[in-house]
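testing teh design pipeline on a random one, pls ignore if ur not involved
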């Protein structure tokens, strides 16, 4: 009896035939089913496909893991650069504040106010007239 509906064993689709003649009948009932070559072959082909898929996925996982490790190394390097830039920026801001404070001390000093006339005369002698017009 064929094991699949609408499939009858013949030379094109049967893996092998087995026949039993004679002998005693056993007490227990027995069923015999012919398995077609296609039905026999299909699970093994599926297993081969799954194995190939597993190998491909393992290769992709390995590539992704290596790419991720490389990305992590780049992130760590960039974090170092960002930290360095942040430190330099804070240092520049502090230095700018110090320079501004020094500038304000000079501008507001008594000697700067007393020498204002002399600085103005020096500019006029150099031909710098624009500052005089802009101040008015």
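output:
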């Amino acid at each position: 009896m064929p094991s699949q509906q609408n499939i009858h064993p013949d030379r094109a689709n049967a893996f092998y035939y087995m026949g039993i003649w004679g002998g005693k009948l056993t007490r227990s009932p027995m069923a015999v089913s012919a398995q077609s070559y296609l039905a026999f072959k299909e699970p093994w082909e599926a297993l081969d496909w799954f194995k190939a898929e597993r190998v491909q996925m393992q290769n992709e996982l390995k590539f992704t893991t290596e790419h991720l490790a490389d990305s992590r190394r780049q992130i760590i390097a960039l974090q170092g650069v960002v930290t360095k830039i942040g430190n330099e920026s804070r240092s520049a801001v502090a230095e700018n504040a110090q320079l501004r404070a020094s500038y304000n001390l000079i501008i507001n000093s008594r000697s700067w106010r007393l020498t204002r006339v002399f600085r103005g005369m020096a500019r006029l002698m150099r031909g710098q007239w624009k500052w005089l017009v802009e101040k008015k």
